[in-house]
Amino acid sequence: MKKYLIYTFALFCLSSCQDSFLDVTPTDRFTQETYWNTKEQAEAALNATYAVIVNSNSLYSAGNTVYLDALTPNTYQYNRDENIISRGLHNAATGIFNTTWNTSYLGIGRANNFLANIDKVTMDEALKNRYKAEAKFLRALFYFPLWNLYGGAPLITEATDYATQASLPRNSAEEVLTQILKDLDEAAAGDVLPLTYSGADKGRVTRGAVYALKARILLYASRWEEAATAAKKVIDLNVYSLFPNYRGLFYLENEGNTEVIFDAQYKFPEFTHSLDVSLDQQLGSAPLPGLVADYYATDGLPITSSAVYNPAKPYENRDPRLQATVIIPGTTFKGATVTDIQYPSTGYGLKKYTIFKDNEKPTIVPTSNTSELNFIILRYADVLLMYAEAQNEAFGPESGTDKNLTVAQAVNLVRQRVQMPALPAGLTQVQMRAEIRHERRVELAAEGLYYYDIRRWKIADQVLNTDVFNNKGGRIDNRMFNATRDYLWPIPSIAIQNNPALKQNPGYGN
Known about the structure:
Layout: H1 32-35, H2 39-51, H3 62-67, E1 75-76, H4 81-86, H5 95-117, H6 125-148, H7 162-165, H8 173-188, H9 207-220, H10 224-236, E2 260-264, H11 275-280, E3 286-287, H12 289-294, H13 321-325, E4 326-327, E5 332-333, E6 336-337, E7 349-350, E8 375-379, H14 380-395, H15 407-417, H16 429-443, H17 449-456, H18 460-463, E9 467-469, E10 475-478, H19 493-498
Antiparallel strand pairs: 1-3, 2-8, 4-7, 5-6, 9-10
Helix pairs in contact: 2-5, 2-6, 5-6, 6-8, 6-9, 8-9, 9-10, 9-14, 10-14, 14-15, 14-16, 15-16
Domain SusD-like N-terminal: 21-219
Domain RagB/SusD: 286-508
Signal peptide: 1-22
């Protein structure tokens, strides 16, 4: 799976047109009627569904997901749609809203066509059932943005049919959520998905990936007890563990390690991204001072109350995840000392999701579209934090003892990986909630998840209506978030133009 099969795209030369003056079967291309014959063709169609994940317009592609943090207090992006959105200047014609909508349906359409036709193929039934489960997971994955960001969209589960599907109205968010959970439950049923893969199949959907995605969906839906149960299923598989080195977790040589549950698979030269260039040259997201300040001191306390924090040496005695994520002036990166002007956007650079190391000078200068570093969509640390949050919200901070994993223990596992001290005993539910939210921010920074977090916690309007400053205190921009509008993305104007039955979200006009 590291290298998606190139011939998969033959499937998408399928022609649905019929010339009225010519009643013959085309011999120069596949059609839906002629394609579905062999196991290899079925696998190619499934691989092409996976390939949508790394489509440059997909919300799961490496660049687009990392850049989502620019819609939060974590990072700043000055030259993409994220900057327009973060300043409150977006509308239904803004590009990312259209590309996310369209690419989600591209993935859904490929999954639907696969599921509608796979039974035509004579092949091993166990493998066929596994393929079906993978496709249902992928369909759920592609429906996630339509549910979470747009608040509902036309629900399509049949093979592509323009005549019947082009004018469908939006289904409610609850109806889309129901379908997502149905797909995930069916994908997990019967244990047809393996726990792990090897060889060329590494990177495909596993049982753990299904449970982890289900936990995320239920957490975002505030269905706390169910979310905790789904997360605990991942934990109880005893397949995953935290990778010992936090920075090393994101190195090319450690792809597919024991913390990775599901990731976007890149392979040079067919499927690549440009994060090595865009992040290092400040064409991508630049960390903001607020994120840097939120990393605790090594005594486990905020820098505002820590006895070991020294304002004269602000980057010393800090949570190791700070310098594993952010490039700090005066430190060593790429074998050289980082200067004060090296990262002019905010004063800081983003280290995570570049291939560069602190003490090694690159032997080759990367160029655009050459990085093959996988982007991790689901990982075990996130599962532990989801479990902790869901348990705390459902039952309080002392819950989970009957299963030998308390809320605090789950959080502490994540902290201990970077030698941060355990949480203090006796935290109330409110105090634990604050610690879990802090932990999610610093552990998952630059992974796109904090944008979803501040939206579902309904704090985006509190943390985003502010000016943006660099590390010297200079104002560089402003942020605006309209609480009556911006918790949902607009339905793209071109989609409504093509299908007037679509109803626009509040605040975006007709």
